[in-house]
Design goal:
Layout lengths: L2 H18 L3 H25 L10 H4 L1 H16 L2 H8 L10 H6 L3 H13 L3 H6 L10 H16 L2 H11 L2 H20 L3 H36 L2
Helix pairs in contact: 1-2, 1-12, 2-12, 4-11
């Protein structure tokens, strides 16, 4: 249910009822309520849409660049500060950094190829050639890769490794570089925004709540109209 439409409809109904039944009080209440609801609805509409002749309308799309700059400033100066990053690294969450997803995506085939090449160039190369050369080791590729990934996962989950990793990440130059990279990512994502998308995002966030402005505009307008009618 659209609160703005319902409020305007009820106010317009009071106007029609008061005019039709020749009830000045009802007519005045309806007119004041309708004026309060319509002006508040127009104010909300003007946030998102440019209305010809009305200066200041369309403030959200017209202030698009300032909107992006505000988000960037909020993200970098409130969330991704060096102090907050350092606080996270010293928290319990950072003590158990899980690198398993990263390791699973790493291609370890070059490691196996390097191992085979090393064996071929070593004193064992001639013996390997007698058994079919490098091709004889091909069946060992998958077991080697699986074992390597398992070993790397176990290594990264050790307390000593996490302690070393956190200490390295806490270095001032690393923190500064991390913050710069985060700032670059935030800026890139903000550059993907368009004025229309920003308008839609803001509308979705606040239109429901701003609808109450129309309701209360109608209510207080009606009360003022009632007072005006009674003191005449």
């Amino acid at each position: 249910m659209n609160k703005s439409v319902v409020t305007n409809f009820l106010a317009a109904a009071c106007v029609a009822l008061g005019y039709g039944l020749q009830q000045p009080i009802v007519l005045t209440v309806g007119m004041f309520a309708l004026s309060g609801a319509i002006t508040n609805w127009l104010a909300i509409h003007m946030l998102f849409e440019k209305v010809p002749g009305l200066y200041g309308s369309g403030v959200v799309p017209s202030r698009f660049e300032e909107f992006k700059a505000g988000i960037h400033h909020l993200m970098m100066n409130q969330f991704f500060t060096q102090e907050n990053i350092d606080r996270f690294l010293n928290s319990s969450d950072a003590k158990t950094i899980d690198l398993t997803p990263v390791i699973d995506k790493v291609d370890l085939e070059p490691s196996f190829d390097a191992l085979v090449s090393t064996v071929e160039q070593s004193s064992l190369g001639n013996m390997l050639a007698m058994f079919g050369g490098a091709e004889a080791l091909t069946p060992l590729k998958e077991p080697f890769i699986d074992k390597m990934k398992q070993s790397l996962v176990e290594l990264t989950q050790s307390e000593e490794f996490n302690h070393i990793l956190v200490n390295e990440l806490e270095r001032p130059d690393v923190l500064a570089d991390m913050q710069a990279k985060v700032a670059n990512i935030v800026e890139q994502r903000l550059n993907e925004l368009t004025p229309e998308l920003v308008k839609q995002i803001v509308q979705d966030m606040i239109r429901t709540h701003l609808g109450w402005l129309v309701v209360w505009g109608g209510v207080f307008g009606g009360l003022i109209g009632l007072i005006a009618a009674l003191i005449q």
